[in-house]
Write a structure and sequence with these properties.
The structure is a homodimer.
Chain A (H helix, E strand, L loop, with lengths): L2 H12 L4 H8 L3 H9 L6 H10 L4 H17 L5 H11 L1
Helix pairs in contact in A: 1-3, 2-3
The structure holds a DNA duplex.
Chain lengths: 92, 92
DNA sequence: TTATATTTGACAGAAATTGACAAGTCAATA
DNA sequence: TATTGACTTGTCAATTTCTGTCAAATATAA
């Protein structure tokens, strides 16, 4: 499961928009938009900013989801992930 | 500050070994070993495995530090890092 | 079937990462 | 001050990873 993509799809569908429409507004290929929603590609910061506008969403909320995805990319399939996170939290 | 590199230097120095000696045993350039200790380069998993042997360290412990470094790479300079970590922890 | 929406696979170009080499700094000491 | 040894730094080519597009495939609905 991917945080940002799931949310983007929710937002888009709840507003009755098509992939193509959102993609056009943020000036990317529809295929890419599809991939972003399914977590097959990671969005650029700039994308998120534009998407937030188009979907009337809070940019910071989306960035949090995006960061979470990127952290997950690092720790997924890592048996020692929890330990590493504990260490990070301790230090932070 | 970097987790793994700091620990590697501790381990090496506490055993009175030279960079050159450790580097030779794990079959990398001394310059690279130096960079690993200072966090200027990220080690490969395979490196860590070999280093653990050479420095008589626990491999899993080193992997935890290595993962923590990689998570830190993602969240550093991110004002929303804490929120993202909270989200990850909640889901995990 | 036809039309429309979304997904997939393949690809080229861009960007990031890698590790080696050579040259550099620095401190100790001959 | 010259030399030596330990470590660091800059640069670079090679490799790997990532990006976004296009064309084709698949799905969904009328």
């Amino acid at each position: 499961m991917n945080y940002l993509g799931t949310r983007l799809r929710e937002l888009r569908e709840s507003q009755g928009l098509l992939l193509r429409q959102v993609a056009a507004q943020i000036d990317v290929d529809t295929a890419l938009m599809s991939k972003l929603e399914r977590g097959e590609r990671r969005a650029q910061r700039e994308h998120i900013i534009r998407i937030a506008t188009v979907l009337n969403a809070n940019e910071k909320d989306l960035i949090v989801l995006w960061l979470a995805d990127r952290i997950k990319d690092v720790i997924q399939d890592e048996p020692l992930a929890e330990e590493a996170l504990k260490l990070i939290n301790k230090t932070l």
